Task: inverse folding
């Protein structure tokens, strides 16, 4: 690994100022993604700023409007075990528990989780194959290479990678906000706008600017929260990233769907909302499988599978139906 220095931040404002001034400085929280990238030669920070001692960023607290504020330094395992999260937003707890391993979840922070980089094997390959995310302008080895795990929505010729975070998918379905501290103070970014599609600049995963520090994720109080579910489909039952995943949150009247929120993982460069299906599902009967399938299909008309992942479209439609039924049974 290349040489680097490390220092410990004790004040959020000073951490933001240090990050803003030094292009070669990276924040480090649990280190479970960043250190792997450094070992793989996919990240070369000269300075690491350890943010773990920053005060006030590790809690899970009620907000005045009845929602939750989850600190950026809260550990995945602590958030998954939090009673409020489990009862009011099971989709978040499940998104966390289906991710990584127990040991990793004890180290990994919420901020680091939504900032983690793609698991495209070309991007992580120490032999440095063509990869626009790793080396802008070098090409995309996955476009005509092995792309079974890659995107079916929103990709560009420059990059067909998917975003790997599970909990980001749950947060997308709940329309959470990412609260960010910058030199001008705090701003809230709707999670739908936080991660980017690749376009011609796949090296940029998010809209975060230099210096900005995630301080929290906020979830508003909502009827759909309790009747929610995260379904993850993967090649093995534990310790694996999603082939496809679905976060579903619903509000019902009897067996009819009054409101539906759906987001998917493993299908795009960012958590992917199924807005057409959400509209088409409103008023549908949870027992009318044909109607549910037809409504879900409306979100797949623009799917663009690659050479090795055509199976993802069909798998996704089935996973959405299953997640919807499980969420509906919790209403
Ligand atoms: C073997 C393995 C399996 C895994 N499986 C899964 C899985 O199934 N699902 C899943 O979702 N994840 C999975 N992960 C990823 C894991 O969840 C992430 O590595 C972890 O959440 C990152 O958090 P961290 O605190 O360790 O981040 P770090 O590694 O410390 O940081 C990651 C990035 O975030 C930036 N950062 C950290 N905190 C902040 C902040 N507050 N503000 C701004 N930037 C910040 C850092 O600068 C860095 O760029 C897996 C990881 C491994 C190694
Ligand atoms: S899909 Fe993206 S991350 Fe993977 S090789 Fe292509 S440019 Fe790189």
Result:
């Amino acid at each position: 690994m290349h040489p680097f220095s490390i220092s410990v931040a004790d004040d959020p404002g000073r951490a933001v100022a240090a990050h803003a001034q030094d292009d070669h400085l990276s924040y480090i929280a649990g280190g479970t993604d960043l250190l792997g990238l450094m070992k793989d030669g996919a990240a070369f920070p000269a300075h690491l700023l350890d943010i773990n001692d920053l005060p006030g960023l590790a809690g899970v607290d009620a907000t005045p409007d009845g929602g939750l504020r989850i600190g950026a330094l809260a550990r995945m395992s602590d958030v998954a075990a939090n009673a409020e999260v489990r009862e009011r937003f099971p989709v978040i707890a499940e998104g966390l528990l289906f991710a990584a391993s127990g040991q990793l979840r004890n180290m990994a922070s919420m901020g680091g989780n939504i900032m983690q980089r793609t698991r495209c094997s070309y991007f992580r390959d120490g032999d440095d194959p063509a990869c626009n995310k790793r080396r802008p302008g070098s090409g995309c080895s996955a476009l005509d290479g092995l792309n079974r795990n890659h995107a079916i929505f929103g990709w560009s010729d420059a990059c067909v990678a998917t975003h790997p975070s599970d909990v980001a998918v749950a947060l997308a379905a709940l329309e959470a906000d990412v609260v960010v501290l910058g030199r001008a103070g705090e701003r809230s970014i709707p999670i739908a706008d936080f991660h980017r599609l690749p376009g011609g600049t796949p090296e940029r995963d998010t809209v975060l600017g230099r210096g900005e520090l995630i301080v929290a994720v906020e979830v508003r109080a909502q009827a759909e929260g309790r009747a929610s579910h995260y379904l993850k489909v993967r090649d093995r039952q534990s310790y694996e990233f999603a082939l496809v995943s679905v976060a579903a949150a619903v509000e019902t009247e009897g067996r009819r769907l009054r409101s539906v929120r759906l987001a998917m993982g493993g299908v795009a460069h960012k958590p992917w909302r199924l807005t057409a299906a959400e509209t088409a599902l409103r008023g549908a009967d949870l027992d009318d499988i044909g109607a549910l399938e037809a409504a879900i299909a409306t979100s797949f008309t623009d799917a663009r599978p690659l050479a090795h992942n055509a199976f993802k479209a069909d798998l996704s439609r089935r996973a959405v139906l299953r997640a919807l039924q499980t969420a509906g049974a919790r209403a």
